[in-house]
Structure formats: structure tokens, C-alpha cells
Predict the 3D structure of the following.
Amino acid sequence: MKYKLLLLDIDGTLRPGSCEQIPRENAAAVRAVQKAGVKIAIATGRGRTGVGKGLLRDLKSDYWVCAGGAQLVDAKGSDLALHRLTPEEMYALVDFFEDYELPLRFTFHDANYAYIDFAEFDRREKAKNLYNNIVDGEDQDHHLEEMPFGCFGFLPQEKAAQFQQKYGYLGLQFLYSYPGSDGCDIMQKGVNKGTGLCELAALAGLTPEECVAVGDGDNDAAMLAAAGLGVAMANGSANAKAAANRTGPDAEPHGVADLCRELWPEVF
């Protein structure tokens, strides 16, 4: 087979927005491709701890590209690579988000800790059926046990520009899912799903050209561009489609299953 590793975004790709879990059809099709010898990686902005039990049904991934590329994990749950925020980066984010009373959370191994405005995270998670294992961390002390390796905040894009005016020397990136969204992954310079794909491919003894990547958001664009074949879902953002080699089906009702049947017809 030309393609030996399939990387799949979760939200808006494997899991259509109307579903609490990935559709059974998607899980079955990905399992069939996996059984035929293609390795599967879940590539998500969520930390590994944020992928709740049952979300992927009975799908067992060979690898994980989590926290937007900051955490690479094997099938057993062990870290293959980890890119932690520095204390200077973290404190700058906390100071800025506190100044403007904006929701902010950090990803650790045991949970996502909302350092600012847990109630807003809880409200939005429930409204979108996400359940991303977010706990109240407003005592702001969990980084004393370990530094975080992921960060997510809600802020208007003009506020992100203000952060860069003050702290641009840190090189942090604000990766919004879609234009007009106020929710974004906040990543270190040089860390994204694209670099995660390349790092994982090297660890697996593969080249990026042997990988298929499927996603829908602006934060998937680097991954779609890095893969040998990048497929943006039909419901995806303009930036995702521009970065991809081609557009695939809509995530609804089970677009990933349809795509698997198209790319690997011999399996079915």
C-alpha cells in the first residue's frame, strides 16, 4: 500500500458536530483499513486525557498526535514525545488572560485544568457535546507538579494580536479552528499538527509522503499540508481546504467511512 499511516482529526472529522460519539460506520471503516495493515493515528487538539471513554467507540488507535502536536502517544498510552510550555510562556498567558478576564485552560497528563473561568468552559463543553475532561484549576497550582504541554483559550482575534504586541518575543501561536471563532489552541513556535505528523512518521519509520491526513479546521492546515495526501472535509474551513491536496466528503453523516472506502477500495 502506498499510504501506511492514516491521521484523523476528531471533532468535525471523525465526530460530526451532531454526534456525541463517532458514528459506528466511521469506527468500522477505520478498523477495516487498520486490519489491512494501515496504522491509525488520532490527531487532535485535545490532550490524550481529553479523549473520553466511549468517544471513539471500539476504535483502538496505534498512535496519537495530541494537544495539537505537543504530545505524541503510543497505543499503550506512553508518551513518545512531549513539548511542554516554559514557565515564562505559561505565566505570560495567565497574566494576559487574567487582565482581560478571558477563559484559559492548560493540558496536563491527568486532566485539562481551567485556570481562568471554569464555568465558561463547562458551559461550552456541554453545549457542543465535547466533554474534554476539564476540571476547575482556578487555584492555579497544578503546574507546580508538572508543566503543561497544551493550552486553549477563548479570546477575540484582536486580543491575540494585542498579546503578540506585548509578548511576541515568546513566539507563541494562536491557532483558531475557524475564522471568526474565539476558541484557539495556543502553541509553542514550531509545534503544530504538521510537525507532529512529521515527528510521528519518523518515530514509526515512515516518511510524511506515506501518510494520509484528514481534518476540517484551520488548526489542521499544517497537518494537511505535511502529509503525502491531505484531505479536508467538505465541511472544513477555507484554510484547511487550501492546505489540502483535495476535498473529501462532509463529516455528516459518516464521511470518514466514505473516504476510507474511496481510498482503500480493495479493503471493502
The domain at 5-82+191-267 is CATH 3.40.50.1000 (Rossmann fold).
